[in-house]
Specification:
mainly alpha; AhpD-like; 8 helices; two-stranded antiparallel ribbon; 147 residues
Amino acid sequence: MWKRVLDMPFIRTVPEDLAEGDTASMYSRAKDGFGYLPNMVAVFSHRPEVMGTWNELISCIKNNMDVRRYELVIIAAAKELRSSYCMLAHESVLLQGHYNARELQSIVDTPEDSSLNEADRAIMRLAGKVVRDATSITAGDVDELRK
Protein backbone atom coordinates (compact mmCIF):
# COMPACT_ATOMS: atom_id res chain seq x y z
CA MET A 1 0.00 0.00 0.00
CA TRP A 2 1.74 3.23 1.15
CA LYS A 3 5.20 3.32 2.63
CA ARG A 4 4.52 6.34 4.83
CA VAL A 5 1.79 8.76 5.76
CA LEU A 6 1.79 12.36 6.93
CA ASP A 7 0.91 12.85 10.54
CA MET A 8 -1.76 15.43 11.31
CA PRO A 9 -3.35 15.61 14.73
CA PHE A 10 -5.30 12.35 14.97
CA ILE A 11 -5.36 11.87 11.19
CA ARG A 12 -2.85 10.02 9.06
CA THR A 13 -2.99 11.16 5.45
CA VAL A 14 -1.40 9.89 2.25
CA PRO A 15 1.61 12.02 1.28
CA GLU A 16 1.39 13.62 -2.12
CA ASP A 17 4.42 11.77 -3.50
CA LEU A 18 2.85 8.41 -2.56
CA ALA A 19 -0.69 9.11 -3.74
CA GLU A 20 -2.09 6.80 -6.41
CA GLY A 21 -5.27 6.45 -8.44
CA ASP A 22 -8.25 8.51 -7.28
CA THR A 23 -6.25 10.07 -4.45
CA ALA A 24 -3.56 11.30 -6.84
CA SER A 25 -6.27 12.71 -9.13
CA MET A 26 -7.96 14.46 -6.21
CA TYR A 27 -4.64 15.95 -5.11
CA SER A 28 -3.91 17.12 -8.66
CA ARG A 29 -7.31 18.85 -8.99
CA ALA A 30 -6.83 20.56 -5.63
CA LYS A 31 -3.36 21.80 -6.56
CA ASP A 32 -4.67 23.08 -9.89
CA GLY A 33 -7.43 25.01 -8.12
CA PHE A 34 -5.61 26.26 -5.02
CA GLY A 35 -2.01 26.29 -6.17
CA TYR A 36 -1.10 23.95 -3.30
CA LEU A 37 -2.51 20.89 -1.53
CA PRO A 38 -4.74 22.10 1.33
CA ASN A 39 -4.88 20.04 4.51
CA MET A 40 -8.66 19.79 4.16
CA VAL A 41 -8.16 17.87 0.90
CA ALA A 42 -5.45 15.61 2.31
CA VAL A 43 -7.85 14.60 5.09
CA PHE A 44 -9.90 12.80 2.43
CA SER A 45 -6.87 10.94 1.06
CA HIS A 46 -8.15 7.51 2.11
CA ARG A 47 -11.67 8.21 0.79
CA PRO A 48 -11.46 10.48 -2.28
CA GLU A 49 -15.02 9.54 -3.24
CA VAL A 50 -16.21 11.25 -0.05
CA MET A 51 -14.36 14.40 -1.14
CA GLY A 52 -16.24 14.20 -4.44
CA THR A 53 -19.56 14.05 -2.61
CA TRP A 54 -18.48 16.90 -0.32
CA ASN A 55 -17.64 19.01 -3.38
CA GLU A 56 -21.07 18.31 -4.87
CA LEU A 57 -22.76 19.48 -1.67
CA ILE A 58 -20.67 22.67 -1.54
CA SER A 59 -21.43 23.36 -5.21
CA CYS A 60 -25.17 23.02 -4.60
CA ILE A 61 -24.97 25.47 -1.71
CA LYS A 62 -22.77 27.95 -3.58
CA ASN A 63 -25.04 27.90 -6.65
CA ASN A 64 -27.69 29.79 -4.66
CA MET A 65 -25.54 32.63 -3.31
CA ASP A 66 -22.72 34.85 -4.46
CA VAL A 67 -19.16 34.00 -3.49
CA ARG A 68 -18.84 36.94 -1.12
CA ARG A 69 -21.89 35.98 0.90
CA TYR A 70 -20.91 32.30 0.94
CA GLU A 71 -17.51 33.24 2.36
CA LEU A 72 -19.12 35.50 5.00
CA VAL A 73 -21.27 32.58 6.14
CA ILE A 74 -18.25 30.28 6.34
CA ILE A 75 -16.31 32.89 8.31
CA ALA A 76 -19.15 33.30 10.79
CA ALA A 77 -19.32 29.54 11.30
CA ALA A 78 -15.54 29.15 11.50
CA LYS A 79 -15.31 31.96 14.04
CA GLU A 80 -17.89 30.23 16.23
CA LEU A 81 -15.96 26.96 15.87
CA ARG A 82 -12.70 28.79 16.60
CA SER A 83 -11.16 27.29 13.46
CA SER A 84 -8.24 29.54 12.59
CA TYR A 85 -7.36 27.34 9.61
CA CYS A 86 -10.81 27.75 8.09
CA MET A 87 -10.91 31.46 8.93
CA LEU A 88 -7.61 32.09 7.19
CA ALA A 89 -8.55 30.13 4.08
CA HIS A 90 -11.90 31.87 3.63
CA GLU A 91 -10.68 35.31 4.62
CA SER A 92 -8.10 35.06 1.84
CA VAL A 93 -10.95 34.69 -0.68
CA LEU A 94 -12.65 37.81 0.65
CA LEU A 95 -9.41 39.78 0.40
CA GLN A 96 -9.38 39.09 -3.35
CA GLY A 97 -11.61 41.84 -4.68
CA HIS A 98 -14.28 41.97 -1.96
CA TYR A 99 -12.77 43.74 1.06
CA ASN A 100 -9.52 45.31 2.11
CA ALA A 101 -7.75 44.10 5.25
CA ARG A 102 -9.22 46.79 7.51
CA GLU A 103 -12.79 46.15 6.34
CA LEU A 104 -12.40 42.40 6.75
CA GLN A 105 -10.95 42.78 10.23
CA SER A 106 -13.99 44.85 11.19
CA ILE A 107 -16.34 42.21 9.76
CA VAL A 108 -14.61 39.42 11.67
CA ASP A 109 -14.27 41.32 14.96
CA THR A 110 -17.62 43.13 15.08
CA PRO A 111 -19.89 42.28 12.16
CA GLU A 112 -22.74 44.30 13.70
CA ASP A 113 -20.60 47.45 13.58
CA SER A 114 -19.03 46.79 10.18
CA SER A 115 -19.96 48.14 6.76
CA LEU A 116 -22.02 45.02 5.99
CA ASN A 117 -25.63 45.49 5.00
CA GLU A 118 -28.37 44.12 7.25
CA ALA A 119 -28.94 41.04 5.08
CA ASP A 120 -25.27 40.04 5.41
CA ARG A 121 -25.34 40.64 9.16
CA ALA A 122 -28.49 38.53 9.50
CA ILE A 123 -27.04 35.61 7.57
CA MET A 124 -23.83 35.75 9.60
CA ARG A 125 -25.86 35.79 12.85
CA LEU A 126 -27.81 32.75 11.68
CA ALA A 127 -24.64 30.88 10.68
CA GLY A 128 -23.16 31.52 14.11
CA LYS A 129 -26.36 30.42 15.81
CA VAL A 130 -26.50 27.21 13.77
CA VAL A 131 -22.99 26.34 14.89
CA ARG A 132 -23.67 27.21 18.54
CA ASP A 133 -26.96 25.31 18.76
CA ALA A 134 -28.83 24.32 15.58
CA THR A 135 -31.81 23.20 17.66
CA SER A 136 -32.32 26.78 18.82
CA ILE A 137 -33.18 28.06 15.33
CA THR A 138 -36.72 29.42 15.25
CA ALA A 139 -39.15 30.59 12.61
CA GLY A 140 -38.25 34.12 13.74
CA ASP A 141 -34.63 33.53 12.75
CA VAL A 142 -35.70 32.46 9.28
CA ASP A 143 -38.18 35.33 9.03
CA GLU A 144 -35.35 37.76 9.82
CA LEU A 145 -33.51 36.49 6.72
CA ARG A 146 -36.61 36.80 4.57
CA LYS A 147 -36.92 40.50 5.46
